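ok trying this again, last paste got cut off
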Amino acid sequence: MVHAALYTARPGWEIVNRVTGGWMIEARDLTKRFGPKVAVDHLSFMVEPGRVTGFLGPNGAGKSTTMRLVLGLDLPHGGTATINGRRYRDLPSPLRTVGALLEARAVHTGRSAFNHLLFLAQTQGLPRSRVQEVIDLVGLTAVAGKRAGGFSLGMSQRLGIAAALLGDPQVLVLDEPVNGLDPEGILWIRNLMKVLAAEGRTVFVSSHLMNEMAVTADHLIVIGRGRLIADCGTQEFIARSAEQSVLVRTPDPDRLAGAITAAGGNVKVADRSAADPGGPPADDATALTVTGLPAARIGELAAAGSVVLHELTPRVGSLEEAFMELTADSVEYGQPGQPAVTGQAAGPAAAGSAPVGQDR
């Protein structure tokens, strides 16, 4: 079970200018190739402190490669990736500055969880007591003495999060941190990231779980085929990319539909379950889905025509819908029964796809 307490910074672990120092991740014209394939294609963005920034993209978009470039694990063929203006390798105390989780199972399988973290702590001059603190924080106290090679994915994930938090860093870079966690663990890491961001830290997190990102990320950076697709607030991304509609229920659908169409709106009969997810409506009203007009205008049209309304509900698209719409041309596979999209078949724009197994 993950420790219920949220992460709390301790005075002994404060980093200079924690809240106001403006630690920031910046990519400028970042480019990385694997043979003829371009995994990251002239990518530029900034990850600012004080908010959770979600990093989204289809499989093969270049997310993991970009994070590796930020952390100095891969060298770019062009451009730069810096943390507070410095390359990762030039940071004087990396673990005290940047906490990273890229691959949860990247541990010595013969070492215990405690000794794995102790080894990392000793490389940065961190005390033994800090190891126990993060062990307790992520809920691994009962298994701290067991070999990490026998851990489940969820336990390995928590060990990776403990390693990322070890130096009480100003910057967090987390690749799919909720993989393998149970619902309680997912809620815990979500709240943890929000608390860290509220303290003024920089939190950069990738995930394929759109519903989770919708309630966690304040800002989104979306890429496809190694190129930037969107860099904006989460709600702005949803509003501009997902279709907005209004659910209307009325016993006089024909007259209302005619008025809406004449006013420039679009009408279609909604799925009956959309009007009442718990079962069929208790009356004979017909459910309509309207696009192209706001709810207020639909209400005005109904009033002008003396049309009775039983429901008038604006609907906002989801992050998943917005993501699927915006990245439809960047996936590496096609619809069932259709050939997959490849670098050759898709033309020059597909050059940003990384080889299979090279990146997520």
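PB: full thing came through this time. The mean pLDDT is 83.
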